[in-house]
Fold each of these.
Amino acid sequence: APDVFVYLVHGAVGPVASNICYARYKAADLINTTGELPPVKWVSLVEDDVLDNLADATYTGNVLLRLALEPTAATGRTDAAWKDLPNAKSPSASYALLVHLFQARGLPAADANGLIDPFVAVTCSGVGLKSSTKVKTRDPMYYETLVFDINIPTIYVVTLDVTIIASSDYTAGYAVPKPTWYNLSYEEGKGGEGQLLVSCTLVAKDFPDQVIDPPTSIKPKMQEKFLEIICLGLRDLSPIGFMPLHMPFLQFDIGEVSSSNRPKKTGGSSKPTPANPNFLERILIPIQLPEDAQFAPRLNLSVFDTLLGGFHKPLLGTCSIDLTTKLPFSNGVENPVYVAPGESTKYNVGNPHVDGPLVPKPAPSSSSLTCGDDGTGLPPLMRRDSSAVPEIGPDDDETPKYMNHRKVMRGSIEEDLQTTPFEVYEIFRGQKYGRAAFTYRAVGKFKGLIRVINSRSEPPLFDLQELLNPQPYVIRALTIECFDYDMFALSADCGDDFIGATTIDLEDRWFDDRWRTLGHLSEGTFRPVETRQLYTPSSVITQGSLRLWLDILTPVEATASPAVDISLPPIETFEVRVVIYKAKDVVPGDELSELSDLFVKCWMQSNNDKAQHTDIHWRAKNGKASFNWRMK
């Protein structure tokens, strides 16, 4: 059976009519065999993308209908069903619909600088109202109320949009209902981006021409706080176009910028490099925060560069930081979503060249290993579990002295620490939607700490003098890049082949108290040996692993404990003698006769050209052969 289309048509019926939007059904889904009337439903319409008769900001609308396929004998019942529905002659009452707009967050960027100038348009009963426009923000704060005068049949409340109405208390005196975050999308049922905090109230009028005034203010109850921002610096910052970076600086603002709410800025910095500048500043912002954490605003961070002697300051990127997780209390009780400073960012222990973490497959159980592939036919070294790390004990005869009292880890230290001492927020630039192409991308990272404090006198989380007065340190580590150095037989060095690399953030290591407690020279313990995976941009899988330990020492500590000699022991000369007696259970080459001509070939690793082999046991049957052969 063909599909059924319900079209919303503009214009007179006939050739001049224009289809605006539609709903589509499969005929099989509309067949009614229950014998009962199908329910009345609100149906969301979809724009006809081919005709494109609606502007981008126009809502497609909904249609309240009862739709079903029934035999022609059910005509009488259909006529009776129409009498059950409200019509133009049904009694109705006048109401005022109050739409309370609080704030929005995470709106998609529509400008090339990664920002947007958003406003909210609400349509009800064919009447559209708009909120005020906020400038250059993806997280606007409105706190406005839009009032609609509507008539609703007194016997049917189904005409209300139940997905938006948050309260059905039809009283003249009312309190603003608690709002809810709603996801935003271009079309019904399709994914989008951004959320809107909104609530609605329906107020009955005493007489039709009564004017219902909106509440004076819908702002929540506020409290005086201070926002502390410790700006460590920016990392991996990208310039705009071909103009190199010169002197980047940061700007912080909360809410709409005005004469009484001016943004805070850091000083410009190009040390150690413009792409990785350090600011080392502590910024305190007096702020009014809501007692209810649900209404907490977002901190807007903007990165600018200083060019042409300060005459040109282009915007490099922006990011917004949710302060809901920074409030330890909400309405006098503990905030369930509160995250302590320095615990919001987790280490990326996977491939840094892949967007998002790679979810490892679960390890197979012992029962599955017995019934599955057990590695039969492979050499013993290849059948060994590659994830197993051999333990080094103090009584091991081959244990080097520098490994005594030193723990060997199966993974990296970041896997055990999990969270970084500083918070890291990605900075974005570009647009996601609009007429231009998709250019939204990450252009750097901000590293620092953000928390809410009660007064200016509270001490900072870090000693700023330690940050502002750099001290010399000695860093000892094994080489963290691995190469396959190969000299060819034609006496020509053809270069080294890059295999993989791993990166260690020295800032996170040094400022993490948990890492500092790993190993104390005065107590005879040492830094653990960690196993780090090597990655390359051309592959998503690991290229091997590297064992190392890292020490960050002051000059005094470095003098007191000289560098450990981890060189290999001197090369000694040995003679390897191999005796090959017999072979058995060898898979025959000829399955029909089960006969094979067998011999054994042996060679030392990296010396394939000096391979030796036994004589040939001709016509060996059932995979059995005798050699009694000696080689050295």
Amino acid sequence: MTLTHIYYKKKKIIVKSLIFDFRCWMFDVGCLMFDVRCSILEYMKEKSNTVARAKNFSPLFFFILVVAEGYSVLSIELSISQLTGIFYGLTLIGWTSVIAIVMFGLAAGYFFSSYFLNRIKESSFLFFWILGISFSWIWLIPRMGFPLMNFFYDWGLITGVVLSSFILVFPSVFLLSMIPPILSGINTFEINKSGKSTGVIFALSTLSGIAGIFMNGFWFIPEYGLTISFVITGAVIFLLWVIISIKIKKLVYNLIVIGFFLTGFFLTSHKNNSKSVARLIEQKEGILGQVSVLEVLHQNEKKIKRTLFINNISQSVVQKGFEHLSLLQYVHRISVISSIYPKNSDALLLGYGAGNIASELVRLGFKTDVVELDKNIFDMARKYFYFENDKIAIAIDDARHYVRTCTKKYDIVIMDISTGETQSSYNFTVENFGMIYSEILKPQGMIIVNFQGYVDDEKGRGARNIHFTLKKAGFSTHYWALEKEKLSDILLVGFKSNLKLEIDTSRLNFCCKGNNFEKTLFIEKSIDTTNLRILEDDLPLLEKLVLPVSMEVRKHNIDLFVKNKFEVGIPLTR
């Protein structure tokens, strides 16, 4: 055999070997394709079973389920923001905590929905447990909110608001947020329609949430209170749970859910103390939060003191039977300063409160206009505090909006604006002060700004920056505070021109005369003007500057009022 024959024989063997290897490879590819096909068919079969299981419910039920989920999630967010604000205050910390936890609950619900969907054979059972636990938790929130926040308060203000918000918000938001992804998974069997189905479901959920915010923010909470808001939200979920429970016909499961709710209901019960010296007169939820009136019997003095609260921060204190006289010194100090103007002067009061300052202005003989944002505050003052309707012109409006649209000129503008322990920063900017200076004050006009806090050191940065901003707006500025530096009401005063400060003591009430305010009021102290910044609309620094003071005020009021309310059984919400 020649070398040529050997070469061609070896080449033939190699070719045959390659052909055999290729056939083996093709066989392996075929097996792999068969396995993939089987897997796809198995997945399609499982998906078909899911769709078949979902057909136990009509498309209308799915539509209502998505609407209920969207409505409930954002209603819970809004209501719990108000609820925590009653105890911890409507500060940036509270809002940040609630919003962050809601977003975390939504993310967790979206993520774990696929896990549960792939492991639970019947989607109806998944909806049953989601809705059952959710409505129970939502209905329990008003009952467990006060004890929970009272417990975590001892852990610190920031820690308390974060942990309280997490326990109140997360469970129901986490469960309800699973509904859109699950429904999207049920209705996306055809890949070319999956995007449309998912988009429609989440759009419907979002629009329902917007409707929930408007309904609760403008109707349920202001008119009926936070408790009713939670009851309505829970009732929507409860009705859907009833429909599903009828479908699955599992009595034991129903008893578990009902038992869970009843256990929580009885564990969160709190008895009222009938022998308490404190009595809640009335309580409402409004634009600025919770407004309440409380009476406390002081047995040593045998006097009943009546207090107006906004989010459990005292706004006005009077003695029952002498509602026209405030027990807060700053009211009388404002009266003394205002008395430098003659009778029939025009006065504008921004922030009505219980009406004590307005009463002082009327007593001085001023023609008085009052602006109050929250009608509930005005209604409370009219019912439980001194009120002279025929001598005061009331406007229910935002202070800044009123200033911008007002055409009348005033001799005096008094700003006594706060929401509990916080002041809305947009009212204390150079733009707003400049508008007051140029548009609504007369040439000899004066502005008085009441601000709670300090003047000196780091805690006084807020007051000093307002003082500095008034000066930059064109005012000749002054301030008066208590001689001993402590947390108090500080009066920041600005004049359009230099006035002779002559007090007409004949027009002062006996409270002002008895305390000799006129002798010490105009003793000024120097103010530190270093490292001050102008407060502007584009740079609202005030809330950050006064945050330590706001937290101190909140802590003081929790210790003084809120914890005592809990001990005597006064409800946190109505």
